[in-house]
């Protein structure tokens, strides 16, 4: 996800994200960790689905 995509998702401008990064680093860090968490959860779901499909093929 690009900075522009993240800003759109949050309902702010990309400039706001850049300002947070400089002026409110803890807020920026927390927001970025949230996006990383969502990405990790989605990747885990995809891996689970793939493993489930492999398991069903071997039955």
Walk me through what this model shows:
The protein is mainly alpha-helical. The protein has one domain. Helices cover 86% and strands 0% of the residues. It is built from 3 helices and no strands. Helix 2 crosses helix 3. The termini are far apart.
Structural class: mainly alpha
Number of helices: 3
> What proportion of the residues is helical, as a percent range?
over 70%
Shape descriptor reads: elongated
Average pLDDT works out at: 95
The end-to-end distance, rounded to whole angstroms, is: 38 Å
Kindly state the number of beta strands: 0
Rg (CA only): 17 Å
What's the short story on this structure?
The chain has three helices and no strands. The protein has 59 residues and is mostly helical.
């Amino acid at each position: 996800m690009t900075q522009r995509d993240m800003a759109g998702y949050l309902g702010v401008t990309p400039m706001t994200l850049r300002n947070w990064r400089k002026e409110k680093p803890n807020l920026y860090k927390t927001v970025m960790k949230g996006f990383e968490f969502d990405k990790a959860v989605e990747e885990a779901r995809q891996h689970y689905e793939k493993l489930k499909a492999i398991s069903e093929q071997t039955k």
